[in-house]
Specification:
Blueprint (H helix, E strand, L loop, with lengths): L1 H30 L12 H6 L2 H4 L4 H7 L12 H14 L3 H27 L2 H13 L4 H5 L4 H22 L3 H15 L8 H10 L12 H8 L1 H16 L14 H20 L16 H20 L5 H14 L23 H16 L5 H25 L4 H11 L4 H13 L3 H14 L4 H13 L3 H14 L4 H13 L3 H14 L4 H14 L2 H14 L4 H13 L3 H14 L4 H13 L3 H14 L4 H13 L3 H14 L4 H18 L1
């Protein structure tokens, strides 16, 4: 008997391994295109590409940073997520394809865990496989997997599933080690994303079905099961306090912007809308904007639907227990994402919000279909045909939706096609176009964003930056001032307004805004650099050096910081120090033409003309159409006594700018020098 049991267990393990292998193969075959996808300019920059602490990899200092409560506009407390991104950067640098594959790997592991936990609880192998496959390959999972910034979502889901599986092992054969392991995995999930806070309630649902723990003999059974979850509930309180303290009052979306009435109505409608998208995924987007209002009939019908299904779940508790567990899994796990309390940029709906909740709907669908066909003569044929049809419908849509995530342009274009009045995506599309130097098109998108929402400060900020780059200072000031009237603590607007004021000679006012920016956000390295530049212009070089060093302390690989510090030392007459910092800037940004130019000038002052010439040559190669670059190189040749090369450079200037007076004067100097040499 023991031999038979061992043999059965061995065969079962081999079969489970085969199932897991097939699931993994399916997932990677569908999703593998993400290896060619880029970072998108919608949080990916803040989470990875432009985040110094993340992109510099795992280090003790960066790990400490990941645990800090950072009260900025995009604050989140999820140290495990931060460290996951850091590890990717440590291993792969800023190769977006590898970052995508890491998220895909975690998604695959989560799928396997969902299969294992359902199979362990129910013994229904085929149904467990179907639920796991639906979760893995459904189009609504795409946003979580293909969006690098949503690593927090796939990580929290992984720990969600790992906690449940460990809890099941504890229930089957209790031990303190298994229980503490489940608690520890729950903590890791909480440190990945707060969405996981509903897990203790889900464990109680699983106690009812399929674990059947409510049928155990003994008094006060429910109380005992709740008492068993006390450590989980205590952790919820602790982490809730941590999450809350991670946000200042400015982080929360005010009721003036989105009323509680609209939030509550949207929550009811979203419950039903998500089910619609699970059954028939269409017009999928990364950001669904809030409507200005929701028709009363839609709110009432959605509320009625939720009440009716909940009532049926209670009435059919004994006959269809999976309906109760699946339905309240769905309702409960969506609560944190309903937007009743909103932080930062909050959509009316988001595909990523339903990543874990939709498993409850899949449980209802798969177990319900099994009951529906249980009495049919050709049950297996019907089931097999249904499975083929479902996945033949979902998989192509998943592949198509994945393509929209290839880069920022394709992503935002898709959103604007499938949503209406989406001022967020018009603004983001404008940023993506600006990055591609498609400035005129970017202008159009920012203006469209403001036509829909004239009070959207990000679009005002971005439009102001374009005006600033075009030298239209008055228009830039108007937009930055508008932002600060709406949000006096907006650090980007303070920094941008300071920049334009500095360029128009209003240095004291510029300094005031740069100081406001760094007071609001002490980690804003670029504002510190701008503050340094402003103090250089006012001649307060000691303060300039102090603030620039602060920028470098915050972000040690910021090339502009070293360059600006070099400027300050050059103005102080400390040429060797200037050379040191210009050189560091060039090490970090070899294509920084200004740094090469200033380094060459500093070398010239030290009479190190060969080195000066080398760097002026680099500037010419970087800017072959820049007359001033040839002028500088020609003058360095002249000082070095290399008159023919100097004359050639000044001649090149005149080809670019025939009326360049400086070049004409320099040629005369060269000719005069040649005459003196001849004599």
């Amino acid at each position: 008997m023991n031999e038979l049991t061992e043999k059965t267990a061995f065969l079962s393990a081999r079969f489970n391994f085969l199932v897991c292998f097939v699931l993994a193969a399916l997932i990677f075959s569908v999703y593998f295109q993400v290896k060619d996808h880029d970072f998108v300019s919608f949080d990916d920059n803040w989470y990875v590409a432009e985040n110094f602490h993340v992109r510099s990899g795992l280090s003790l200092e960066n790990i400490k940073w990941s645990f800090k409560l950072q009260k900025t506009k995009a604050s989140h407390w999820h140290p495990v997520t931060w460290m996951s991104h850091m590890l990717d950067c440590q291993l792969f640098g800023l190769d977006p394809g590898m970052h995508h594959l890491s998220s895909l790997f975690i998604h695959g592991l989560t799928t396997i865990l969902i299969f294992l936990l359902l199979n362990k609880m129910t013994g229904a192998v085929f149904r467990s496989v179907l639920v796991a496959a639906l979760f893995a390959l459904h189009p609504l999972s795409v946003n979580s997997v293909a969006w690098i910034a949503e690593r927090k979502n796939v990580l929290s889901a992984f720990f969600w599933a790992a906690t449940i599986l460990t809890y099941i092992y504890y229930v089957k054969k209790p031990s303190l080690f298994k229980y503490l392991s489940a608690v520890f995995l729950f903590v890791l999930g909480l440190m990945s994303k707060p969405m996981i806070i509903t897990l203790p309630f889900t464990l109680l649902l699983l106690d009812f079905w399929p674990l059947d723990r409510f049928k155990l003999k003994g008094k006060k059974l429910f109380s005992r099961l709740v008492l068993e979850k006390v450590p989980f509930f205590l952790l919820l309180i602790v982490f809730f306090l941590i999450y809350n303290s991670a946000f200042s009052g400015d982080n929360f979306v005010s009721m003036d912007m989105v009323s509680m009435k609209l939030r509550a109505e949207n929550a009811l409608v979203s419950y039903v809308r998500y089910i619609e998208l699970i059954i028939w995924p269409h017009d999928l987007a990364v950001f669904y904007p809030y409507p200005s209002e929701i028709p009363l009939w839609k709110v009432l019908s959605s509320g009625l639907f939720i009440v009716l299904v909940s009532l049926i779940a209670f009435l059919k508790l004994k006959k269809y227990p999976y309906l109760f567990t699946g339905w309240f899994w769905y309702l409960g796990t969506l609560v944190p994402a309903l937007g009743l309390k909103q932080v930062g940029l909050w959509p009316a709906m988001a595909d990523r919000f339903v990543y874990i909740p939709m498993v409850g709907i899949f449980i209802i669908a798969v177990w319900g279909f099994n009951d529906l066909v249980s009495g049919l003569r050709f049950r297996n044929v019907v089931t097999g045909t249904a499975v083929v049809i479902v996945f033949a419908f979902f998989i192509p849509q998943t592949c198509t939706h994945l393509k929209t995530w290839k880069n920022s342009i394709s992503l935002f274009e898709n959103d604007l096609k499938v949503t209406r009045k989406n001022y967020i995506m018009h603004n983001n599309f404008g940023l993506a176009l600006e990055k591609e130097n498609r400035t005129d098109e970017a202008f159009v998108q920012f203006e469209k964003s403001l036509q829909i929402n004239p009070y959207y400060v990000k679009a005002h900020n971005n439009l102001g930056k374009l005006f600033l780059e075009q030298g239209r200072a008055d228009e830039a000031i108007k937009h930055f001032t508008f932002v600060l009237e709406r949000e006096p603590g907006n650090v980007k607007a303070h920094n941008n307004l300071g920049t334009v004021l500095a360029k128009t000679g209003q240095k004291d006012e510029a300094i005031r805004h740069f100081l406001a920016a760094v007071e609001q956000d002490p980690g804003f390295s670029h504002a510190f650099i701008n503050l340094c530049g402003a103090y250089i212009e006012t001649g307060d070089l000691d303060r300039a050096v102090m603030y620039c060093k602060k920028a470098i302390d915050i972000e040690p690989d910021i090339a502009k910081g070293y360059y600006t510090l070099g400027l300050a030392f050059e103005r102080k007459g400390l040429i060797e120090k200037a050379i040191e910092y210009y050189s560091r800037a060039i090490d970090l940004a070899p294509d920084m033409a200004d740094a090469h130019t200033n380094l060459a000038i500093s070398y010239s002052k030290e009479n190190r003309l060969d080195q000066a010439i080398d760097h002026f040559k680099i500037v010419v190669n970087l800017n072959p159409g820049a007359a001033n670059a040839y002028n500088n190189l020609g003058f360095a040749y002249f000082l070095a006594g290399r008159f023919d090369e100097a004359e050639s450079c000044f001649g090149q200037v005149l080809q670019i700018e025939p009326d360049n007076k400086v070049a004409k004067q320099n040629i005369q100097k060269v000719l005069a020098a040649k005459g003196l040499v001849a004599q």
